[in-house]
Amino acid sequence: MKKKRIILPTDFSKNSWNAIEYALTIFKDVPCDFFILNSYQVGASGLSTKMAGANDTRLYNLIKEQSQRELNRELEKIKSFDSNPEHTFIIRSVAGTLVNAIGKTVYNEEIDYIIMGTKGSSGLKEVFMGSNTYNVIKDIDFCPIIAVPDDYRPEGKIDAILLATGYEHLFENYELKPVLNLAEHFNAKLWITHVGTLNELTSKQKASKLALEKRLKSVNYEFVEVEKDTSVNQTIQNVVDMDRTLDMVVMINQDHSFFQRLTREPVIKKVTFNSTVPFLVIHLFE
């Protein structure tokens, strides 16, 4: 796999460390530039006096210094965990919302993946990483995102990947690249799961399935049909629970997708919060 550029957002919680550990373990044999990113905000006091302004500036500087200090500490921890000479680490302390901080970094640094945790600790200095992760998935629609569940422990390899699709789109090679890169690198099997029954497929869906087969020539793959449970999210979880070898769930996110129309449920949101294995979301550029 060629060199990857990856953002690792952190709020210095155990949860975000778990996602960092996952990234370092999974990409241990891949040359990488890792951007360790912390964002911070100061709420305006609402008072337009000079004193309030000065207080805001003082508070801003304190928070900025704390962010920088914590990032340096995180970097030390990372370096004691990861000694790969082909891994470089860049720390970024950015004022503003997490979504804006990540968006700017993706745009300026040509990022390949964002990897973050799905449940954060709450507290004064921490943000709720869970809802933050979903906001990033929702708003950063120009970069693949891997959401790592709180209690997931990586083994350093990916043996099997589940791609859940409604066959509603004629996939281009570049759209599948984030998942194909992983499948090729780890020699992982790709399970293509369609929730529903095959004889319900429209001619457009059948064409999409055929096109998908052509795009998957470089990897070991198999199509599986899954009967829908109470919800698409529940169905996907059932498949993961049944097959313990699955190491990742992948969904392609597009507006008004088949899943959302079929079920009226915000599938991406639910899977983000409920997945027991890392969840890769790839957005479509339509």
From TrEMBL:
It comes from the Bacteria. Pfam families: Usp (PF00582). InterPro entries: Rossmann-like_a/b/a_fold, Universal_stress_UspA, UspA. Residues 4-148 form the UspA domain. Belongs to the universal stress protein A family. This is Universal stress protein.
